[in-house]
Amino acid sequence: MAHRLFSIVGLVLASFAPATLAGDSPRLTSEDLDRLIAQEMAVDQPADLAADAQFLRRLSLDLVGRQPTPEELRQFLDSKAPDKRDAVIESLLSNPEFGTNWANYWSDTIAYRIPPPELTFLEYGPLKKWLAEKLNSGASWDAIVGEILSASGKVGENPPATFVGYHEGHAARLASETARIFLSLQIGCAQCHDHPFDEWKREQFHELAAYFARVSVKMPWNDGTLVEVSDKGKGEYEMPNVADPTQKGRMMEPVFLSGVKTGTGKSDAERRQELAQLITNPENEWFARSYVNRVWARLFGRGFYEPVDDFGLAIFPVCPDVHIAVSNHFIATGYDVKDLFRLLLKTRIYQQKLGTPDDDHPFVAARTGRLRGDEIFDSLVTAIDLPNVKPEAMKPTKEIRFPPPPKSTRDIIAETFTFDTSLRREDIPRTLSQAMLMMNNDQLQAQVNANPESGTVLARLVKSVNDDRELTERLFELVLARRPSERELQIAVSHRESVPDRGAAYEDLLWGLLNTAEFTTKR
Asked: Hey, how many other C-beta atoms are within 10 angstroms of the C-beta on 113?
């Protein structure tokens, strides 16, 4: 296993702190990265850069989770500054919405495979707020993950305890999900038997689970924010029953996947702090590579490894030298999250026209991608001021002692369009319920109303903009963050002329734009 992971001795673990870099790793510029990709892909002639409007929409969706506003679009298109793309990247990285957007991504990643407990409704709001604050403040990725793995206390008071708490302290689940999310190692198959397609052994799985042997989680009724993580104060981890009777009840010493032993008898805090140090240490190559692979996949439409949570021996990576180089850069910066985004976004490869690269040239151009549910909601807010309506909570009754929390508009849209962020791009489903929501949702429909008394964005535009071509352009900018082609203008104006009621004609246009695949796609 030495070639797969690393060896560390003498770690001091009184409390979690980000590990220091051992040795120097080469840092990259965006130009360096472009050259590396061109060399590995044997690209002689780079593609044209994307038009400014396309670039800005994609960048805004990637960083702040919504399309640019018409004002942001016009300001960018009208700018003659030679460095305006670099400037808007910096502006969006410093926007508080950056942290919110990527907090939503990581909350979705953590939450998607957490089974709902009985009698308790999980609440990810505190975790999202905490993650957003950390990302916006420039906290390093190793510091963030270290807190997630080692935190104790009530979720509402110490949100990083969400990961351990919402898994109910289940040692086997925590071992599997810790390796999958933060290292992209699929060791779950080794829980019951040696992995048939990789080198992980059943013993290794349960040695990793032993790091969570003393976690105690209190699951209160009806309120996920009161889930509390603490220390049992005693006990060791035993390998669950297996067919081999000689293994029954075998006590497992905490041992990391690299073979580094922690030893029995340590407290819950000591074990999880040490595990956090081992995972985030710069010598553990999989930690940086896992994060880089996920971010790269989200920005470019596919990762070096697909799916992004599986670095298994059966998965053939693309551009492995580029992956290693970017990961080494990430380590050299001290796991600086915003620096990594800056490096990738300023490349010509990112800023080129979107395309459909073949498997032999996967990064010649970025690919289109689906928007997550929260990104669709925020895009609807930007386009039509969609309100976030939340019904009153249902009171408990004799028949329903624990009524579910009411779902807001954001909740409904996020839930309808949610998907596992670890899926390959081509495996993300489009469903009938998604189409029906966009066509028929009451709150959304209420915003597609040109009646002056409705007070909607559309009503204000129909009243204030008399020129049909200008009004059509304004709606395209609001919804799709671009100006219509001449052909699109002609179709829209022709439709307007064929409908006696001007407001009704533009209700049709707005509804049609919202229901295009373009609106819910990063392209």
From this structure: 16
What's the pTM value of the predicted model, to 2 decimals?
0.92
User: Phi, psi at residue 237, to the nearest 5°?
Assistant: -95, 130
Per-residue pLDDT of the chain (523 residues; tens, 9 = 90+): 433 443 333 333 334 444 444 345 589 999 999 999 988 887 767 778 999 999 999 999 999 999 999 999 999 999 999 999 999 999 999 999 999 999 999 999 999 999 988 878 999 999 999 999 999 999 999 999 999 999 999 999 999 999 999 999 999 999 999 999 999 999 988 887 776 777 888 899 999 999 999 999 999 988 999 999 999 999 999 888 665 666 666 889 999 999 999 989 999 999 999 999 999 999 999 999 999 999 999 999 999 999 999 998 888 999 999 999 999 999 999 999 999 999 999 999 999 988 766 656 677 777 888 999 999 999 999 999 999 999 898 888 888 887 888 999 999 999 999 999 999 988 998 999 999 999 999 999 999 999 999 999 999 999 999 999 999 999 999 999 999 999 999 999 999 999 999 999 999 999 999 999 999 999 8
The SS3 of residue 375 is: helix
Retrieve residue 267's tokens: 């407290």
CA separation for the pair 171, 205 (Å, rounded): 10
> Within 358-485, where are the H helices?
373-384, 409-417, 432-440, 442-447, 457-464, 468-480
252 forms beta bridges with: 237
Dist. CA 285–CA 421, nearest whole Å: 22
How many CB atoms are closer than 10 A to CB 94?
10
Contact 326, 33 (CB under 8 A): yes
Query: What's the one-letter identity of residue 85?
Result: R
Binning the chain into helix, strand and coil, the percentages to the nearest 5 are 50, 5, 45
Whole-Å CA distances, 242 to 100, 239, 245, 246:
44, 8, 7, 9
- Give the three-class secondary structure for 365: coil
The number of CA neighbours under 13 Å toward the Cβ of 209 is 25
- A 10 A CB-CB count for 471 gives 22
- The CA-atom distances, in angstroms, between 400 and each of 9, 123, 219, 395 are 54, 20, 19, 9
Candidates 44, 55, 95; CA nearest to 347 is 55
Q: Tokens 């104060």 label which residue?
A: 233
- Residue in 253, 256, 295, 275 with CA at minimum distance from that of residue 6: 256
Name the CA radius of gyration of the chain, rounded. 25
Domain limits of the chain? 29-48+285-361, 51-94, 101-280, 368-523
Instruction: Quote the tokens at residue 258.
Output: 């690299």
Query: Residue 351 in contact with residue 31, Cβ under 8 Å?
Result: no
Half-sphere exposure of 257 (CA within 13 A, CB side): 27
